[in-house]
Amino acid sequence: MSTPAIATSYETVIGLEIHVQLLTASKMFCACPVTFGAPPNTLICPVCLGLPGSLPVLNRKAVDLGLRTAVALGCTAQPTSQFHRKNYYYPDLPKNYQITQYRYKVHPPLAIDGSLEIPREDNLVPGGTGRRIGVRRVHLEEDTGRLVHAEQHGRIRYSLIDFNRSGVPLMEIVTEPELRSPQEARTFLARLRAVLQAIEVSTGKMEEGSLRCDANVSLRRPGAELGIRTEVKNMNSLRSVERALAYEVERQRAVLDRGQPVEQETRHWDERRGITFSSRTKEEAQDYRYFPEPDLVPIAVAPQWVAQVRASLPELPEAKRRRYVATYGLPEYDAELLTSSAAMARFFEETVRLFPHPKAACNWLVGDITAYLNVAGKEIDELPVTPAHLAELLQLVERGAISGRTAKEIVAEMLAQGRRPEVIVGERGLAQISDEEALARIVDEVLAEHTGPVSEYRAGKTQALTFLVGQVMKKTRGRANPEMANRLLKEKLKS
C-alpha cells in the first residue's frame, strides 16, 4: 500500500519594485513636455532620443518630488546621491543605457530605509495594529520609450515605437521582501498609491502607466533562507497584481512539490489567459555594468531642503484614517476605503461640509458609489457627480422628500449623467408621499383588496403586516413614506 503524499508547507515571500511617473511639466533630462495621450513621437528631442552629442540636464522638480515621497515614507535622504548608467539593449532604449540610480556604498540612491504600514491580515478588527513593510530605497531614473505590438491571429506581426515616454521622470520604490501574500501586496500598493496622490507626486493611474509594479516572488520553508525568485511584470491594475501573484505562488508551489527547482527568470502576466509565462532569464546587477553617469554631477541634499519638504507635506492617509475613526466615529474598514485615494477623501470631506452627517455620507460612498466605480473601472473624480449632488440627495432623504429605495434609483442616474437629484425627482415624479390623508386612502384600498392577509394579521400572524406594507409600496411605486404607511396600517387593522 502506497504512502499518501504529504502537502508541503511553504511561506510566500514577495518584494515589490514600483515605478512611479512623477508629476512634472517636462522630462527628466530635457525640456520636452510630459503629456499623456499625445500623438506618437511628437514630444521628443535629441536628448530623449539619445542622439550623439546631446547632454542631459537634471529636472530639479523631479528631485523635489522624490524627496517628498522619501519623507512621507520615513526614508533617510542621502546627503549626496549619484546617477549611473544601466547598460542594456532594447529597441525602446535608443542610447542602449538608462540613466538611473543604484545602491552603491560610495554613491547611494536618493533615499533609503523607510516603511509603510499595512493592516495585518489576521487583525482587521477596529483598533487592530498594523504591520510595517520596509522600503529599501527610493531612487530616480528616466523612463524608456513604449513598444506597441501589432497582433494578427494571436501572433505579433510587427512592433512600433513611441518615444514620447522616453525620458519621462520616474521614481522607483523598492520594498524589502516582507510581504507574505498576494493580498498583502495589493494592500501595500493601494496604500502607497494613496500616499503618492495625497502628496501630489503622481496621479497613480495604473491604466495610464503612471504607476507600474514588478514583483519578485519566491517560496521557502518557514524559517529557511530565501528561495529562488521570479520577477513578474506587466501587471496594470491592483486586481492584476493580486491575480498574477496568486497564480505565480501556486505555480511555484507545484514546481517544488514535484521536487524540481524554481528557475530564476522574468515572467510576464497574461491578463486574458490568467497565467504568467517565461520571458527571459533574470539578470543580475553585474549584467548591467553600472558605472557613474559622467555627464551629471552628484545630487546634494542639504538638511534645510529636507526640512522644507517635511513642513510642506499635507495630512497623510494614515493620519487621515485615524482622524476619520476618532472624529467621525467611522469603522476602520470604512475609513480605509474613504482614504484609498486622494479624490475619494476630498469628495467625502466636501460632502460632510455641505451635509454634516459623516456616517450617512460614508454609507453612500463606500456602498452604491464605490460599487459603481468598481464596475466602471474609474476614480470618483472621473465621474460627473459632485459632492454637492450627494449632499443634496442626502438632504432629500433626511427631510422625507424621497425614500431610501428611491434614492438608490436616483443615485444610479446621477452617477451616469451628473444631473441634480432634485431635477431627477421632479422629472420622474419620484417625490415621497408623506401626505397622511392621501396615504390613508391608499392604505384603505390595500386592505380592501387583500382581505386574507388582513384576517391573518387579526388572528395573530403579525408577519402579514410586512406583506401589506409591500403592497402599499407597490401601489405607490415605492413613493410612500414607509414609516407612515406602517403606522396607518397598524391603526386601521386594530379598528
Automatic annotation (TrEMBL):
NCBIfam families: gatB, PRK05477.1-2, PRK05477.1-4. GO terms for biological process: translation. One of its GO terms (molecular function) is glutaminyl-tRNA synthase (glutamine-hydrolyzing) activity. It catalyses: L-aspartyl-tRNA(Asn) + L-glutamine + ATP + H2O = L-asparaginyl-tRNA(Asn) + L-glutamate + ADP + phosphate + 2 H(+); L-glutamyl-tRNA(Gln) + L-glutamine + ATP + H2O = L-glutaminyl-tRNA(Gln) + L-glutamate + ADP + phosphate + H(+). Residues 346-493 form the Asn/Gln amidotransferase domain. Transmembrane segments: none annotated. Heterotrimer of A, B and C subunits. PANTHER family: GLUTAMYL-TRNA GLN AMIDOTRANSFERASE SUBUNIT B MITOCHONDRIAL AND PROKARYOTIC PET112-RELATED (PTHR11659). This is Aspartyl/glutamyl-tRNA(Asn/Gln) amidotransferase subunit B. Belongs to the GatB/GatE family. GatB subfamily. Keywords: ATP-binding, Ligase, Nucleotide-binding, Protein biosynthesis, Transferase. Allows the formation of correctly charged Asn-tRNA(Asn) or Gln-tRNA(Gln) through the transamidation of misacylated Asp-tRNA(Asn) or Glu-tRNA(Gln) in organisms which lack either or both of asparaginyl-tRNA or glutaminyl-tRNA synthetases. The reaction takes place in the presence of glutamine and ATP through an activated phospho-Asp-tRNA(Asn) or phospho-Glu-tRNA(Gln). It is an enzyme of class 6 (ligase). PROSITE patterns: GATB (PS01234). Its EC number is 6.3.5.-.
